[in-house]
Amino acid sequence: xxxxxxxxxxxxxxxxxxxxxxxxxxxxxxxxxxxxxxxxxxxxxxxxxxxxxxxxxxxxxxxxxxxxxxxxxxxxxxxxxxxxxxxxxxxxxxxxxxxxxxxxxxxxxxxxxxxxxxxxxxxxxxxxxxxxxxxxxxxxxxxxxxxxxxxxxxxxxxxxxxxxxxxxxxxxxxxxxxxxxxxxxxxxxxxxxxxxxxxxxxxxxxxxxxxxxxxxxxxxxxxxxxxxxxxxxxxxxxxxxxxxxxxxxxxxxxxxxxx
Length: 259
What we know:
Helix content is 45%, strand content 16%. The protein has helices spanning 30-40, 77-94, 110-117, 144-152, 154-163, 169-175, 187-199, 203-215, 221-236, 239-250; strands spanning 6-11, 14-19, 48-53, 57-59, 99-103, 106-108, 120-124, 128-130, 167-168, 180-182. The protein has a six-stranded mixed β-sheet with strand order 1-2-3-5-7-10, with helices on both faces. Strands 4-6-8-9 form a four-stranded mixed β-sheet. β1 and β2 form a beta hairpin. α1 (30-40) runs parallel beside α2. The protein starts with 5 loop residues before the first strand and ends in a 9-residue tail after the last helix.
């Protein structure tokens, strides 16, 4: 597929996807959804995915011009959610690769919740997260009503969702909504450092960490202990585990192969 709304490139073990409609704050159209679906299904040998936005914003969510409604007309928003937004959130959260959101500017509406669906969110200090749905009579979709109370608690989740008040990146980090906030001019270097670190780690172990933590919400402690036992058994038989132990004992850099 030829991409017009995103930029997609692989740099060794790192896949980099840039939402590329800067004139519209990288808001989504149906075409952008299709391109992003295609990119995420063609990651090849990438071990880490970095998602960011072009220009001064990360993503402003849905481009309302793409589904403009004339006075007196109606539109089935549930169809849009089911066709585009829900599959995107499911994909980001279920990919075996860690996904890093590099939030370079405003992340609003579904754009904020796309970022929060990623495994690590690193934001520039100037960035803001805005649950802008209430202003047009909607609810935080794209996982918003699920993830917000789990990350920041009910009181803060309701405050963000009801008022639509912009949340500065530094406050988002203090609240535990995101992994960290950094100086604007340090964002790229920080994201690159984390992406390269993850790309050098055992990919099977990272995939298990991601899936187990994300799925732990629906399990009791006893169930989780059983899952941990099974995962440790499985990972203990991998070549990467043996390589990691050998490299530690031999005081050398490991070379993990994902086997």
